Amino acid sequence: MDQMDISFERYLKEALGIYVQLQKWKETEKLPFFLRDLYVFFEVSILGTSCLAIFSKDEVEQTPASIRKHLLQIQKKWHHEIIYVQRKVSAYNRKRLIEHKVPFVIPGNQMYLPFLGIDLREHFKKIRNKVPRFSPSTQTVVLYALLHDGEPRFTPKKLANRLGYTAMTMTRALDELKGVGLGEIAMEGRERTLRFDRNRKALWENALKTLRSPVKKRLWVKHSLKKSLGMKAGLSALAHYSALAQPANPVFALEGKKWKGLKTRKNLRVLEIREPGACELEIWSYPPELFAIDGVVDWFSLHLSMRAVDDERVESALEEMMEQVAW
Predict the structure, then answer these.
(1) Rounded-to-integer distance, Cα 115 and Cα 104, Å
(2) Rounded mean pLDDT of 201-228?
(3) Which one, of 103, 107, 100, lies nearest residue 83 by Cα?
């Protein structure tokens, strides 16, 4: 859940000056499967009022009307107040949530709890959909160029062999790069070639606005496998690259395709919340081992996966890590 539970508790403390503690709702299994698939459920007492906080598992916004229907179904099992918790919300959906009388909290941003007479909407984060984002395959091309300084030019065939994609996919990647003006595309004989600015720091800074986090989903997992689930990632990798302390629960990264083949094993269990002895598993859009060094994800992918984390310790550790990159 990307530490949303911690962010929720911190936000109420900062905004209202109250301390709350989330507890896993024991009646979750009585709800329809589709609701359990959409949300994680916690009991919480806010100013003496019993509430059920439903944390959205997906960053993609649902319609306020759908959320309202979900709340009505949940109320058949929970007869107190319900709070919808999401990472971000658009201006239109915020307005519609209020019209539907749906209590909500966007940790660190805004809060609407009408049953307590609380309506904090001073700050609103706009969701920008117009900024182009690279496909995972195109992103791997940029990362490959950043991590392999010695190669002056790239062709779709060479990139396909190095990155595990088809030549056609790499041709489309070149089209994406050309579309945003990143890299120089030329014809050499019958072959298209790609050249990047030899100043890798400039390439990184210019590409940042179109690069995305490789993390598609985060899960809490317990297993008895004889080996780790994947490459060290998240706080575990950041601790490797900086002075940050290792997290209590280790973090690993695994490509989505590999996760599909692994998640049905009997000696592996997906949890709804963090537990002692569990590890956090990040499901990536491209193979983390592609650029990993000694079982640890590369610093560029790590930076992209954690740059949205609102934590001064993490921000400082990321800066420390990037300062060590030999541009």
Answers:
(1) 11
(2) 88
(3) 103
Tell me the per-residue pLDDT of 64-101, one tens digit each, with 9 for 90 and over: 888 989 999 999 999 999 999 998 888 778 888 888 88
What span, in angstroms and rounded, lies between the C-alpha atoms of 264 and 259?
Answer: 9
Q: Which two tokens mark 123? A: 């700050």
Residues contacting residue 23 through CB under 8 Å, at least 6 positions apart: 42, 43, 44
For the domain bounded by 136-207, which CATH number is listed? 1.10.10.10
> Can you name the residues that pair with 51 across neighbouring β-strands?
44, 81
Identity of the amino acid at 200: R
DSSP for 257-287, written as a single string: HHHHHHTT-TTEEEESS--TT-EEEEEESS-
SS (H, E, C) 186-223: EEECCEEEEECCCCHHHHHHHHCCCCCCCEEEEEEEEE
- Measured over the CA atoms of residue 285, residue 230, residue 280 and residue 266, the dihedral's sign is positive
pLDDT(50) > 70: yes
Cβ contact 265:114 at 8 Å? no
